[in-house]
Amino acid sequence: MLLGHEAARGRLGREHELREAVAQLAGDLDADVDILVNEPADGLVAASEQIDLLVMGSRGLGPKRAVVLGSVSRKVVDRAACPVLVLPRGASAKTEALLADAEAQAVTRG
Predict the structure, then answer these.
(1) CA 32 to each of CA 18, 22, 27, 62: distance values in angstroms, whole numbers, following the listed order
(2) Alpha helices for the chain (secondary structure H)
């Protein structure tokens, strides 16, 4: 039983860290944290019925033919009730470069 208590404490600690990180990143945006215990794709598909846009990351660990989408993101994209934006692993650096280029072009044209 002791091992179960330690695991629960560790899970609660990670959940607290996650909530703090989301609050910091969200700033003044309305963001919710929902910890899924069951199959991730099922939980995300259920959540998609109550939101306008689902943004999720993909670690790209699916079969080789699934270049960007992993197994969870593929299931969610196929079954979601709302549009899904999937950001592949490493997308943050590429996104920052794309935004910087767009800002530079806006300044040049402006």
Answers:
(1) 11, 8, 12, 27
(2) 2-26, 40-48, 71-79, 91-109
Structure tokens at 84: 């899904």
Cα 30 from Cα 9, distance rounded (Å): 27
Asked if residue 54 lies in contact with residue 46, where contact means CB atoms within 8 angstroms, the answer is no
pTM, two decimals, is 0.56
Q: What is the pLDDT of residues 55-69, one digit of tens each?
A: 888 776 655 545 556
d(CA 35, CA 71): 19
With the CA atoms of 93, 60, 37 and 83 taken in that order, what torsion angle do they form, in degrees rounded to the nearest 10?
A: 70
Query: pLDDT tens digits for 2-12?
Result: 567 787 788 88
Domain ranges of the chain: 1-32, 36-109
User: Which residues are within 8 A (CB) of 76 and not within 5 positions of it... i.e. 6 or more apart?
Assistant: 41, 44, 45, 48, 54, 56, 84
CB 68 within 8 A of CB 88: yes
The pair of three-digit structure tokens given for residue 55, joined into one six-digit string: 């943004």
